[in-house]
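Appendix C reproduces, verbatim, an entry submitted by the partner laboratory led by Prof. M.T., so that reviewers can inspect both the input and the predicted structure.
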Amino acid sequence: MMTSVDTDLIRVLADPLRLRIVTLLAQETLCTTHLVEETGAKQTNLSNHLKVLREAGVVETEPCGRFTYYRLQPDVIASLAGQFADLAEAARATAENNVKRSCP
């Protein structure tokens, strides 16, 4: 059984600031102002990271007056977690069955 993981999504989440944003948004829906306060990042830098997260489908936006709120998409994170769980299960089965390729 070949198991693959969404490498594009891993690249998106591999950035420390984006991972921090995702962690914060897992706790509550926040606007850019809140995220600037919480992360200490400059607003333009934060906006660029939020754009990457939005384009990857990790977050969605909700306009509220002159502010934009960001909400984490839990299904995307759950899907990635499921892919890692499948990978772990494959590794467990390989170890239990002592599966190894013969050397030539």
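The chain is about 60% helix and 15% strand. Additional entries are available on request from the coordinating office.
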